[in-house]
Amino acid sequence: MRLLEYQAKELFKEFGIRVPPGISSKDIEKGRKDAEKLGFPFVIKIQVPVGGRGKAGGIQKCHNEDEFELKYPQILEMAIKGEKARAVLLEKMVEIKDELYLSLFLNRSKRCYTIIASADGGVEIESVKNQIIREIGLGKVEEGVARQVANEMDLEGKTANDLVEILQKLSKLIIEKEVELAEINPLVQLEDDSLIALDGKVVIDDNAIFRHNELEKYQEKSEIEKKAEKSGFSLVELEGNIAVIGNGAGLVMSTLDMLSDNGGKPACFLDVGGSATTESVYEALALISKMSKVKAILVNLYGGIVKTTTVASSFIKAYEENLIDLPVFARLKGAESEKSKEMLKDTKTKMFDSVEEAINAAVLRVKK
Amino acid sequence: MIDIFELLRGNPGDSDYKKKPIIVQGITGKFGSLHTKNMIDYGTNVAAGVVPGKGGQKFGNVPIYEHVKEAVDATGAKISIIFVPAKFFLNAAKEALEAGIKLLVAIPENVPVRDTMQIVEFAKKNDSIMIGPNTPGVLIPELIKIGIMPASPFKAGNIVVLSKSGTLLYEISDCLSEAGFGQSITIGIGGDPINGTRLIDAFNMVKEIPDLQGIVIVGEIGGDAEEILAQHLIEIDFKKPIVAYIAGRTAPKEKRMGHAGAIVYGNYGSAESKVSMFNKANIPVAKRPIEVPILLAGKLEQSGD
Questions:
Q1: Full-model pTM
Q2: Could you give all domains of chain A from N- to C-terminal order, each with its CATH number?
Q3: Residue B255 C-alpha, separation from nearest chain A C-alpha, in angstroms
Q4: For a pLDDT cut of 70, what percent of chain A falls above it?
């Protein structure tokens, strides 16, 4: 889970990493009170779990009440890369002398944590020049290592000391909160040469949340996502109108790719888990029935251990109970597929031998 | 370097040649018991189970022990498959490695990354290997199955399949078998960000199989395991035919697509990055699973095999 900037900064503060004064809100009434408390001028920052906010106009300076009344609603209504604003952060401006870059992340290929630091921050990581890279095992950063990094960044005096301190605090944060990525970009050098985190990006390990009740409050899930999680499904909502259900993340991704290749637009990625059962497929159909944009359902199951007749009976049950009225285009690979075709003969579920045929039929149906 | 074939099959002189004993940790759970039955049906020699609190009982004919150490002492097994829930994985895996297990097949999904990293370190120290977590397992067709894969997709032959995804491993092996390309071994890498056996490690395990005809790599978005392997293949100038498939070309960025590891940040982990590295290594990338055997046949023809 990627935290919003203000949430990442809450963690930074908890671990003693300095951030500018700021308050977050979700509506303008609260925003007005925050503005009064904080005092003009400040920056209004959209809170979305994606980058590129500045370029898209999601970060704006605000000098007085008139500007606030104009800009706050604009930013709250904004969407960046399809992500609607989750909140708005009002934050005091700081005098920037220089912008640095600092991150600690899980290095997948090396299977260790890695520091990336640079004296040239403020741009996207791909464009950060003069990167200093250090592998640090399970995440602990000793003072000596932090000092070396500061030296290689050509930092001196107060700035170097602050960097050493921040790097060690960030290391403590990733270990204690089981974080996959903690990035400060830019890490700003102020006029007095001290350092402050002007932005914050933190990705926590979802699979470790059970050990961190305190992080649960950051999980923002839609009703449908909550239901999916309860059933043990993985769900990603997408923009199109053909819902895609399958078993196994790889198979569902593969189905999305093939559907898109053939001109279809997926409405969701729904993985019911490696072993599909009557119940799980029924639950999946129940979830889809709650998505209004869906015009057709594409099912791609590699049965394997589960008989396709088991799955076919969940479609029949879903129609009988009026759970769904949508056409279903299914490819069920596995045992007893002839028998399941027979079972579904007079229903709105059409069964196909290949996923290609199922996809084409679904695309045609939606375009009609 | 551990020889995976020696572990899974043994040598012709061994008394347990082609029936190496394995231990199942969590043998009585819903998932563990179902798949133990399936493994036994496949011909795998499930010699012992381990379930704390159930030592002394039996699962069918399989004796259950309290601890892995007792099971190892009783059976001489060097292989263990773990079915415990994710939050108990760390302790179960540690126990297995401490008991002398050399090959750990880690089935659980949703294991915290920090726990996996600790086990990876521990396995290195013990000169052991872990496959997974979040893996369907490892299988030598018609000989041994240590995992949760169905039996039907796999036929004996000389193609290796290495896959991050479970169901795509079945799907693509099925396509290969249908086209007459049996498999010498199939290994599930797993869909997590940190893998006990990385794609490149799995490649190193299989690259010297004497009758190896070709390798199929089933990748997906996230991380850079495919890129690293492709780079390595260029460096060592590997000559045998390789074909790849990458799932997730059309997935949105910064969204976790089911697998904990299937996420793209910027260009890092993107399908474009993987496909372009494979292209550099002269490895064709199929656009859909069904194309894999066709591309493989083409590669084999080119190599004059």
A1: 0.94
A2: 21-91 (3.30.1490.20), 98-215 (3.30.470.20), 223-367 (3.40.50.261)
A3: 8
A4: 98
